[in-house]
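Archive entry: two folds, one per protein. Generate the first.
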Amino acid sequence: MRTKLILTSVLLASCSDFSMPSMPSGTLLAPYKMDIRQGNYITPEMREKLKLGMQKSQVHYVLGTPMINDAFHGNRWDYVYRLEHHGEVVEKQRLTLHFDGDNLVKIDDGKTVETAPVIEKQATEPTASKPAVKVEPEADVLKSVQGWATAWSAKNARDYLAAYTAEFKPGGMSREAWEAQRLDRISKPKAIEVALSDINVSMEDDNHATVSFTQDYRSDNYRDQVEKTLQLVNQSGRWLIAGEQAGKAVKTKAKAQADDLAKADARPVSANQQAVQDAIKHWADAWSARDTGKYLDSYGATFKPKEIDKAAWETQRKERIGKAHSIAVKVSELKIKLHDDSHASATFMQDFRSDSHKDRTRKTLLLEKTGDAWLIVAEQAMK
């Protein structure tokens, strides 16, 4: 026991030789404070994609779930963000969105406010100082038809089907079979675009209207343009579709040009025209097959890409072609013009589709004959 006491005394004496580093008088050790980020950070790119008239599902896809979504005010979404650095707020951001039903009608980012045009409805008790503004029924009918087309384009089957009355009877099938068919056709394509033009609204009375228009439908696997007529009825303040008739397919300007080119194709072509056509097909096939070697060999030594040198362009093309899992390039409406025996231009519609991108572009290629091969020496694209 005595030995233990002696050892303890020695150890305590040894510890007394250690001391804390000297610090200036009044200095305290401050705890480390981490950077704290809270809420939804909206990048300029995300803000640019936000447009008035978008549906809630589209806004959610672009910006994500709002930081504040008041259950009592479902038509207002608040995206709030703050960054604290060493305990101090160094960045704040707030974006408030207002909806009318399912459509975005107001964007307030604290600096600017964007508001969709609103049709004023007649007041219940108009005053003498402010005369009531009468709403034209055609405007409400048109808004309903455009909402139907928007829901279809957004692949929103619920809102699309809600645009029809409960009494709507499709031709040649039961209502249940028709709804199942529409759900299938809306859900299958990756993308749908429905555009209406030449719209004509005819009011039969206060509760019945007929709307005729040209409907341009395009998806990733089908496209058509037809004349369509809808009969609408006013039910509880909503204009709903009670009848629908699709007329003949419309011969568009593009289709007319394609027909003219088809007639031209029926005429004999020269050997050089055929060689240019084969060269363009070889270029498109190599691109579709993701064969970068054959694709780049389709371009001549004098080809100069815009805003980038050729070596960087070739690296870019290799990267983009190699990154895609699948590519399909279709050339249509091809028109070839021979300037002389060694120079030609080709104009056509290019439909490009990969697993991550698709577009339709009018393109012009300038080709030059080098040896026995026609090679691309210039390229111009126009949306």
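Generate the second and append.
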Amino acid sequence: MNGKKCKPLSCFVKMFLWAILLGFSFSGVAFSKGPALPGNTTITPAFAPPCSSNGTCRELDTCADVDFGQCKAFKGIPGLQRVLSGSFGSLGFRAQTVNSKDKKPVSLWHHVPLIISDDEKGFVVNAFFEISRGTQAKVELNKWEPHNPMWQDRKKVKDQNFKRPRYYAWSPAPGNYGALPRTWENVLEEDPITGFPGDADPIDVIDVGSAPSPLGLVYQVRVIGALGMIDGTDLETDWKIYVINIKDPRAEKIKDISDVPQEIKNRWGIFWRFYKTAKGLDENFFYDPESVRKVNADPVWLGAKEARKIVLDSAAAYRKLVLKCLNRKVKKPYWVPGCSP
């Protein structure tokens, strides 16, 4: 959506919000309860190597190519496997999940169930992961191609007639980053909590666990919190649901976002607020239920109880998407089983 012209009303709303935010922004970056960490403003070369910053390629771990259940640091769904095609780091790269037995393609968005358990022990769900901690390649679910393979997002090169694979320019991803199956952030309506429309994607999920995940892996996580990011350029709601890998050694001690070290939250807060500025876009801001204005320049963390409701709301929006074939009404219609664009 780079370079998209806004309508007069949208421009007015954006300027009004930023006038509000400037009133309570600080010089520098200062988040509560701990020292702020400086962001990495180094720009990645146009064609960065397809590996982690520590020299490994964890995202291509072959355990996912054999069977998701064989990725030992995660409780993966057995009976699924990943099939790679094209070269990682190229526009032709795809990672398609298939059934291990009949090799039929599986959509991680539409075919994988969401909820594993919802009781006094916590809200446990399936999640699929697109970006491994410490990596910069912007891999994501392809919403438009049949069965939704993973691909690397692409960016048009300015004044040139070609596109290149996209990488995070601000810094590597501070943690495993993906989405929740059978959820949707409705771009056609205002979010019931923030008042801004959704971003038309499955709801984002971030694992604070210690093990970097292979690209495309589906594994079980416990929901522990949420961050209501508002895109500063498009004025859309982009919820970030925070989770912990249920097989992580710290899983029994981390039941809520308040149990996560402040340093980790600071790192993510800085990332979400500023990461788009490295490519010339506006800073993002955050939903704040305690503010009269309902927005804040600094991140406002919501706990496990609030995050559970946000996930369930997005699951209800997904059911509406499928039942009413709302994919046909978005600007660029995408693939939904039984709802041809």
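Annotation attached to the second fold: Residues 304-323 form the longest helix (20 residues). The chain has one domain: 31-329.
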